[in-house]
């Protein structure tokens, strides 16, 4: 072989080696890189993410709306409790006035006026859903009654029975506004 043929052959071998290295580099890069996502896939992921955020926001708004409606209903249902609590003392005083015996006509007419005022207050309470808690002769219930004294049980009043009411209690629907102060047999 001549010198020029040897050079040609050497160049060819070098070219083949260089091409092989380039191919290997390209192959290595392709293996190292993650597959490239198409633009459609990227946009679909963003759409899915936004849809999830929208659904969560919609659910949160629905929860807030429901909570607000329930709070408004509770406020409406118990709107008169503060006024009622302030009037309980007046009702107690009017009932004490009604318990007094009168002997002359003027006192009897005054008592009749007090009775009319007391009755109108009771009607107003009833219209608002405020009712007296029944206690005498009932089993003692600490959620409705406040025991201030105990006495020994008898045949007439077995253990844990309300013997006497010292102060009336009231409730508004299912909420106790003032427990009944009672004497309980034990």
From TrEMBL:
- Keyword annotations from UniProtKB, A to Z: Chaperone, Coiled coil, Cytoplasm, Stress response
Q: Which GO terms describe its cellular component?
A: cytoplasm
GO BP terms: protein folding
Q: Name one GO molecular function term.
A: protein homodimerization activity
Where in this chain does the entry annotate a coiled-coil region? 33-81
Cite the InterPro entries for this sequence: GrpE (IPR000740), GrpE_CC (IPR013805), GrpE_head (IPR009012)
Location in the cell reads: Cytoplasm
Query: Signal peptide position in this chain?
Result: none
The family note in this entry says: Belongs to the GrpE family.
Q: What does this protein do?
A: Participates actively in the response to hyperosmotic and heat shock by preventing the aggregation of stress-denatured proteins, in association with DnaK and GrpE. It is the nucleotide exchange factor for DnaK and may function as a thermosensor. Unfolded proteins bind initially to DnaJ; upon interaction with the DnaJ-bound protein, DnaK hydrolyzes its bound ATP, resulting in the formation of a stable complex. GrpE releases ADP from DnaK; ATP binding to DnaK triggers the release of the substrate protein, thus completing the reaction cycle.
Check the record and name the PANTHER family matching this protein: GRPE PROTEIN (PTHR21237), GRPE PROTEIN HOMOLOG, MITOCHONDRIAL (PTHR21237:SF23)
* Assembly mode: Homodimer.
The protein in question is named Protein GrpE
What organism does this protein naturally occur in? Enterococcus columbae DSM 7374 = ATCC 51263
- What lineage is on file? Bacteria, Bacillati, Bacillota, Bacilli, Lactobacillales
């Amino acid at each position: 072989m001549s010198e020029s043929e040897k050079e040609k052959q050497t160049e060819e071998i070098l070219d083949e080696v260089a091409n092989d290295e380039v191919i290997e580099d390209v192959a290595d890069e392709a293996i190292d890189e993650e597959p490239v996502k198409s633009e459609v896939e990227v946009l679909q992921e963003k759409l899915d993410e936004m849809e999830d955020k929208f659904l969560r926001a919609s659910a949160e708004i629905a929860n807030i709306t429901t909570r607000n409606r329930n709070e408004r209903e509770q406020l409406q249902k118990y709107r008169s409790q503060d006024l009622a609590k302030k009037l309980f003392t007046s009702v107690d005083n009017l009932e004490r006035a009604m318990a007094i015996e009168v002997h002359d006509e003027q006192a009897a007419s005054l008592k009749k006026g007090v009775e009319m005022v007391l009755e109108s207050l009771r009607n107003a309470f009833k219209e608002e859903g405020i009712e007296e808690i029944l206690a005498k002769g009932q089993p003692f219930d600490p959620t409705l009654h406040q025991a201030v004294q105990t006495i020994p049980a008898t045949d007439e009043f077995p253990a844990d029975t309300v013997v006497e009411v010292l102060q009336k209690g009231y409730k508004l629907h299912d909420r106790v506004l003032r427990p009944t102060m009672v004497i309980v047999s034990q």
